[in-house]
Amino acid sequence: MLKLKYLLYVAVICSLLACDQTAKPEKTKLLAANGLFSASLSENFALLGTMEGYAELWKIKGIPSLIHKWKHTDENNGIIGTDISVSEEFAITAEKNSIAWWKVSDGTLLSVWRLPGINSINISPDGQFALIGLEDKAIYLALAYGKTLYAFSHVDQVLTTALSNTGNYALTGSDDQTAKLWDLSTGKLKHSWQHRNKLSTVALSHDDKYALTNAALSQTRIWKISNGKLHKEIGSKLITLSSAEFSNNNKFLLAGHTSQRIELWKVKSGKLIKFWRPKKEDDWYPTAATILSLRFVANNKKFYSIASNGFLQKWRNK
Is residue 151 within 8 Å of residue 142, measured between CB atoms? Predict the structure, then answer.
């Protein structure tokens, strides 16, 4: 009986401490002690939307250091969206009713626009265009001119968006339970994919071969862009993703959960390769942070993650 009680005690302690055999991170750094509304990662930078209402740009290569601290209006509702261009020359930030365009090198504010009901933002690879999810559409905005090139229609709020690294496609996910793929050369709809719940996360592979969609409490789907057909369904049937990132060689997929878990999937086979459990604020407290952004680095051998609890971590894939 005593031995049984001891084993039960150990099991409870392991549960509370999140005991598992998952690999440990190479690096952990707390960037925002009070937590984050939003965050995005590039090869060398993290752009954070803090609880204090500021955006912070951190250099993350080597020892993380704060580069710029930005605020573009007098609102105190927080930065709900951030993104950094692939070129790392430009960045955008969004409050609920405004977006700002920034120059990364010196922190210059290039322009501010007021738009009601912003839900998501992305910046193009060259930093000259923005995809903005609004209450009943997404718009594709030429930042240098403040001109809307295209409006992508939905019948409800556009909650999640993605731009391809080639500049060929925009992907929008809505509360209307549809994900739509748009051709940026014409502004026309290429594919529409129906789901059973509102869309949570969308992503595009770097070679424009695949699109990822995940609706709240649903299985994640990978679609073939060429014909719009389903390639694979991956993961549990009751998962809500908060972030997703294809590797630069398009062979692998990182999926970040709202429940503080990261998974690595093989795109072609749809097989789970590995998973990780990022750091909690307190191992004894039964809460989990949302994975806000993921980014492959080092020729896809490593990746960064950042969670809503403010922890930046660097991981090894193999």
Answer: no
Structure tokens at 309: 């609890």
Query: Which amino acid is located at 54 in the chain?
Result: Y
- Strand-pairing partners, residue 114, are 98
Tell me how many degrees the CA angle 65-68-69 measures, rounded to the nearest 5: 115
Structure tokens that stand for 132 in this block: 């903005």
pTM attached to this predicted model: 0.91
Would the pLDDT of 76 be above 70?
Answer: no
Q: 189-194 and 199-204: which strand pairing?
A: unpaired
* Those residues with Cβ within 8 angstroms of residue 273's Cβ, 6 or more apart along the chain or in another chain: 252, 264, 265, 266
* Residue 97 pLDDT > 60: yes
262 and 272 Cβ atoms separated by less than 8 Å: no
**Domain chopping of the chain, boundaries:** 25-316
Distance CA 51, CA 278 (A): 20
Q: For the segment 37-56, what is each residue's pLDDT rounded down to a tens digit?
A: 999 999 999 999 998 889 99
Which phi and psi angles does 252 have, rounded to 5°? -130, 160
% the chain with pLDDT above 70: 89
User: Measured between alpha carbons, how far is 251 from 254 in angstroms, rounded to an integer?
Assistant: 10
Section 299-315 average pLDDT:
96
CA distance 206 to 214: 18
25-316 topology per CATH: Methylamine Dehydrogenase; Chain H (2.130.10)
3-class DSSP assignment, residue 270:
coil
> Please, which pLDDT band fits residue 311 given cuts at 50, 70 and 90?
very high
What distance in Å separates the CA atoms of residue 312 and residue 299, rounded to the nearest whole number?
A: 19
Side chain identity, residue 63: I
